[in-house]
Amino acid sequence: MNRPHIWHRECPPTWPAWAREWAASDGSLTRRLMGLQQGFDVERVFQGAGRVTGLDADMLGLPVGRKVKARRVRLQVGTNASKRAVVLAQTLMAVNGPVCDWPFWRGLGSRSLGSVLFSDPGVERGPLYFAKLPASTPWVRGLLKSGTPAPEFYARCAQYRRGQGTTPLWVFEVFLPALQDLKSGTLE
Length: 188
Fold this sequence. Notes:
Layout (H helix, E strand, L loop, with lengths): L16 H7 L5 H6 L5 E12 L2 H7 L6 E11 L6 E11 L18 H5 L5 E3 L3 E6 L3 H6 L8 E11 L6 E7 L13
Antiparallel strand pairs: 1-2, 2-3, 3-7, 4-6, 5-6, 6-7
């Protein structure tokens, strides 16, 4: 099956300013969200064995259906009743990769992956890629809560590596419309 390549190296200038501001930023998304000082939480929805889908296969360079380790979370801003999801994230890693490449994987729980990756000097993030993902994307659909009306979402992904020859982690992030209402956070 020939799938259209939807991931692009440059953040499209046609995206709204709020989406470009969040998606094209360098550094840790976790730190930016924490910098809003409105409360921050990671809701782990799934962590375990998964399979590569059509939209992910192009970026991963793996065949559709290949087994991977997967983690899916909602990044939320607010406290208690005001808590709302602002980012959906999926992390994928080839199953045949050595566990020692990412020793924290099993014990990550509800900790933010970004807080671990950006505090490890041995981790390098590759270039960012950008796409508009349809709401029907399986992992996105599985993380969406009711009342998030949008046919598609602004997204980015990047590959993370620890050293040479290691199994990469691929992190996919979807920016929900709720981010429009928040000012960009920074910890300076």
